[in-house]
Design a protein that fits this description.
This protein has 398 residues and is α+β, with helices and mostly antiparallel strands. It has 15 helices and 9 strands. Strand 3 and strand 4 form a beta hairpin. The longest helix has 30 residues.
């Protein structure tokens, strides 16, 4: 028995079994791109400006609003690549492959969605090389900072390739979407966001959880038809992500300039400015809220944010008045205690401070009966009251 026959027995697969495994055929769409590491299947989808995706036309965005990512003030979405991958698993470990790397980018007046498709594990070197050759000056992704980019970095390093995007500016749209539309959406999956915000509803879309198993089926029979739904899914992800980036930036620019009639959105944008310590912009955004029409929860949160922004700016009188208004609207320990602090330490109004502490004590005692407040809060308030009474006594004696 020759060596090849022994090897076939050892591997448990004779030549007759190997002969049944279909060979790769030339793809019916796209092209085979030559690389120093062999061929890779490349599929290009081209769209002209004005192409309708959902309710929105495809347009070039020359800049992004800084609220989307304050660290990317010079980010150019036209020069960037919109990245999305389809993988063999949900985890990002070394055993997970990105068998499709999709990249959306502008080429003149055309928006190209280019997909680098790995038809067999042996084509990964060619896939990564081709993707690296088309690298850009920035990245737009959706949860790419946690998944797509770490996964691709892993694959590049395993092949001893230099990652083309390691130090590039990266706009991950998942995080600003959660902040901008947190009062509008219950789900932040891209398919749910695009339906509600862009107006793009997919028909016969492939569920993401089925994609790995379909790819493994393709590896067995090499039937391109299995991959077409995945290609369409990936293409729509990239188109939606680009539109979402442009739409979000345009929306923020419009609210900064003229405001709008969405009180929940204005509050969310004000909170984003507040977290960036841009208090003037936060206060300007809060002026868009019409409290007579806003939902009670929105109105309360907006007044609380306004009071805190005024306090951060050192406008003690205005902040105190806002905390008092907030307490009248929605009695809370926070509003009473903040007002007491400002009256005692900043405005030197001990009578006002004592009044607010007494309100806080009464509210805290009421809440303690229902189990909402603990004894520590009551002890702190009692200590504050004693200190204020001591200050008043010393003033009367002087």
């Amino acid at each position: 028995m020759d060596f090849e026959s022994k090897l076939d027995i050892y591997l448990g697969s004779g030549s007759r079994i190997r002969a049944k495994i279909p060979r790769l055929q030339p793809p019916r769409i796209g092209q085979l791109r030559a690389t120093p590491f062999g061929e890779i299947w490349q599929v290009d989808w081209e769209y002209s400006e004005g192409h309708l995706h959902g309710n929105h036309e495809l347009v070039k965005a020359r800049a992004i609003h800084t609220l989307l990512d304050s660290s990317l003030s010079a980010f150019d979405p036209v020069a960037a690549r919109v990245i999305d991958t389809e993988t063999t698993g949900l985890a990002g470990g070394t055993g997970t492959y990105a068998f499709i790397i999709g990249a959306g980018f502008w080429d003149g007046d055309r928006f190209i969605v280019r997909q680098y498709v790995m038809r067999d594990f042996g084509e990964e070197s060619a896939q990564l090389w081709a993707f690296a050759q088309d690298s850009s000056e920035g990245i737009v992704s959706f949860n790419g900072k946690c998944f797509d980019i770490p996964l691709l970095l892993n694959r590049f390093r395993l092949h001893r390739f230099e990652p083309p995007f390691e130090n590039q500016p990266h706009l991950d749209m998942l995080f600003p979407c959660r902040q901008v539309w947190k009062r509008h959406l219950s789900s932040f999956k891209l398919v749910d966001i695009e339906k509600s915000i862009i107006g793009f509803a997919r028909t016969d879309d492939l569920p993401s959880q089925l994609i790995p198993s379909i790819f493994f089926d393709f590896l067995q029979n090499k039937d391109d038809n299995l991959l077409y739904p995945i290609l369409h899914h990936n293409r729509d992800d990239i188109l939606s992500l680009y539109h979402l980036t442009v739409l979000a930036s345009d929306l923020l620019n419009r609210y900064d300039g003229k405001g709008g009639n969405d009180d929940d959105l204005a509050l969310s944008l004000a909170e984003m400015y507040f977290r960036r310590r841009e208090y003037n912009q936060a206060l300007a955004m809060l002026k868009n809220i019409r409290h007579e029409f806003a939902a009670p929860r929105t109105s309360v949160q907006a007044r609380k944010l306004k009071a805190l922004a005024l306090k951060r700016q050192g406008l003690w009188q205005e902040a105190c008045a806002e905390f008092d208004a907030l307490y009248r609207l929605n009695p809370s320990l926070m509003a009473a205690i903040e007002s007491a602090k400002l009256n005692e330490h900043k405005l030197r109004d001990l009578s006002g401070a004592l009044d607010k502490v007494n309100r806080a004590i009464a509210l805290s005692e009421f809440e303690s009966y229902s189990g909402k407040a603990g004894t520590i809060m009551l002890a702190d308030l009692a200590k504050r009251k004693t200190r204020i009474l001591g200050k008043i006594a010393r003033l009367l004696q002087s």
